[in-house]
Amino acid sequence: MERKPFLFKQYELGMETLFTFEDERMDKKSHPINGEAAYRDAAGNTHPVIRQFILRGGIVNYLGKVLLQRWTDWHNQTMQEDAVNLGEEEEYQKNRTAAKENLHKVVLELHTKLAEAHRHLKREMNDLFTYVMDKHELWNCKEYFKVKTVLELANKNLIKFAPPKLGD
Predict the structure, then answer these.
(1) Which positions ≥6 away from 168 have C-beta within 8 Å?
(2) Which of 46, 137, 140, 151 gives the lowest tally of CB atoms within 10 Å of its CB?
(3) Chain centroid to CA 105: how far?
(4) Distance CA 132, CA 36 (A)
(5) Which domains does the chain show, CATH number per domain?
């Protein structure tokens, strides 16, 4: 199918002439570098590296959400523990020491889970980054840019939701 050139009028520029703009769109199969068809085999299946980009990007996204949820749980329990420690008088402290100990155990358990989630996200992010750097021939596909965005978000989450030391 032959494409016809587009015609544009230049009234906005003070010129009343017409100029042509050749339509450079091509069939994806005929453009081997940037077209999506370049990353598909003859049966139309996606290239295995692209599938890995998508899969590993999904895992890093999921682990980022887990880290956020665990940090939120830990933060809420820590705030509750601080409120209990500051707001009680001496009489109530004697009666509620068991409850305070249980709350402290919960906070320590949540801190451990937070540290695990942080470690898992960091490991997966580093693995994905290494994988992407090794596959430089696919840096011009759209999935690469999606993975790059996922890596940036994961890095921000690692910094923002880092577990503090227990002494803090």
Answers:
(1) none
(2) 137
(3) 31
(4) 18
(5) 48-160 (1.20.58.90)
Encoded amino acid at 155, one letter: N
Report the first-to-last Cα separation within the chain, whole angstroms: 70
Write down the pLDDT at residue 64.
94
* Token pair belonging to 122: 């960091």
- Looking at the predicted structure, is the pLDDT value of residue 28 above 50? no
- Dist CA 67 CA 141 (whole Å): 29
CA dist list (Å): 31 to 1, 21, 22, 137 = 16, 20, 17, 16
* Tokens matching residue 78: 């820590």
pLDDT, tens digit, for every residue of 86-116? 765 665 666 667 778 888 899 999 999 999 9
The residue assigned the tokens 């470690």 is 119
Pair of tokens at residue 141: 């596909």
Six token digits for residue 165: 């030391």
Phi and psi at residue 129, to the nearest 5°: -60, -45
Whole-angstrom Cα distance, residue 113 to residue 115? 5
**Distance, C-alpha 43 to centroid of its chain:** 31
Residues belonging to the chain: 168
User: Under a CB-based contact definition with an 8 Å cutoff, are residues 157 and 121 in contact?
Assistant: yes
